[in-house]
Design a protein that fits this description.
binds zinc ion; 2 domains; alpha/beta; binds N-carbamoyl-L-aspartate; Urease, subunit C, domain 1; about 30% helix
């Protein structure tokens, strides 16, 4: 058994503990004195990024599964949930199996794979696959896989979990169908106060939602969908974090610098998310309780609701990230591991640096590099 002492981030604050890891799982856990841990280091249990675009297939110039998963580990993320608006889209069984195969060969972090429904054919194919989410786009964005709203109800009738990209009116319709068919609905990148109010009014156990760091931290002009909003909207997003808004997800949407200059939508965000949220925690902008919920506990709840093995307590998977609050730095996209080396967060200072990312009891990222032998796996059913 491998044992070490560290401060662990909990919903109530830092807790100095001695951890024991065996066979990829947490084997023992005991509290110790504060004098027995290095004060600046902290451990965050299992961070999964529930919304990433790793491109690949025909857009390897933007990002590959290899480069995106490496960027994930560098950002302290032990697992990702991959979005299907690739070229070709993950919208038929054959392409879904091809995506699984590609990830199993090239991903250095663990993963979940989504499926896109945008027409009658992809809908008929959805029944024969077991994705984490069926992604439904009702609004314009990268790729043209927009579902005709007339087909929306039929997708909910499949009763498979849906991740939704929509504006206010699309959200309203989806919420109605989620309730009618008891279909789990995850609303992506909530960005306005009105959306928070709408979701807050109708939320039940089947309805979850996410916010991105760029919608929390930034206003102004940047090419991204949904658009950045006002300070008033952002205040509502922060206030809803860990409550109406379940989780933070990066919506890592890499493009080449050329394409970005021509207005492609998306933020290269996977490496900035955790340092930014740790900074909000360190500066008292959010409580430990909120941080713990929106960066770990609610992701765990969502995965467990779908029968997936996740989380590191009580003999579960030893996935975690070690960060150093003694190592503040300025975000510089030139240093990203992602192929997309541009960021609206450039120049922002953050209070903590990712030191190590562990997956299933092994350090996969350490000393600024992916450890040899790091190999991602699909997060399976329990
Ligand atoms: C995403 C992309 O480029 O794939 N772009 C974005 O601006 N968020 C698509 C999306 O999530 O809408
Ligand atoms: Zn997205």
């Amino acid at each position: 058994m491998e044992c070490f002492n560290i401060n662990i981030i909990t919903s109530k604050g830092m807790l100095p503990v001695r951890l024991g890891i065996k066979g990829g799982r947490m084997a023992s856990f005991s509290t110790i004195g504060a004098a027995d841990v290095k004060p600046s280091l902290a451990l965050i249990p299992s961070v999964i990024d529930m919304h990433v675009h790793f491109r690949d297939f025909d857009q390897r110039n933007k990002e590959t599964v290899a480069s995106g998963s490496k960027a994930a580990l560098a950002g302290g993320i032990s697992a990702v949930c991959d979005m299907p608006n690739t070229i070709p889209p993950v919208a038929d069984k054959k392409t879904y199996l091809r995506r699984q195969d590609l990830f199993s060969k090239d991903s250095v972090c663990d993963y979940l794979i989504n499926f896109c429904v945008f027409d009658e054919y992809s809908m008929s194919q959805a029944a024969s696959v077991d994705p984490f989410f069926i992604k439904v786009y009702l609004d314009e964005t990268t790729g043209s896989y927009i579902l005709d709203e007339a087909l929306l109800e039929k997708v909910f009738m499949l009763q498979k979990p849906i991740a939704l990209h929509a504006d206010h009116s699309g959200m309203r319709k989806a919420i109605k169908f989620s309730k009618k068919y008891s279909t789990p609905l995850h609303i992506c990148h909530v960005s306005t106060k009105d959306e928070v109010m709408l979701i807050g009014k109708h939320k039940d156990n089947n309805i979850t939602c996410e916010v991105t760091p760029h919608h929390l931290f930034l206003s102004g002009i940047y090419d991204v969908k949904p658009a950045l909003c006002t300070k008033n909207d952002r205040d509502a997003l922060w206030a809803a974090l860990g409550g109406v808004i379940d989780i933070v997800a990066s919506d890592h949407a890499p493009h080449t610098s050329d394409e970005k200059e021509k207005g492609a939508y998306g933020v290269s965000g996977i490496e900035a998310m955790l340092p930014l949220m740790l900074t909000a925690l360190n500066r008292g902008q959010i409580s430990y309780e909120t941080f713990y919920r929106c960066m770990h506990a609610n992701q765990k709840r969502i995965l467990h609701a779908r029968g997936r093995d996740f989380g590191m307590d009580g003999g579960s998977r030893a996935d975690f990230t070690i960060v150093d609050f003694g190592d503040s730095y300025t975000i510089d996209a030139k240093n990203f591991y992602s192929k997309a080396k541009h960021s609206p967060f450039d120049g922002m200072s953050v209070d903590a640096k990712v030191v190590e990312t562990w997956v299933r009891g092994m350090p996969f990222f350490k000393d600024g590099e992916v450890v040899s032998g790091a190999r991602g796996k699909e997060i399976g059913r329990k």
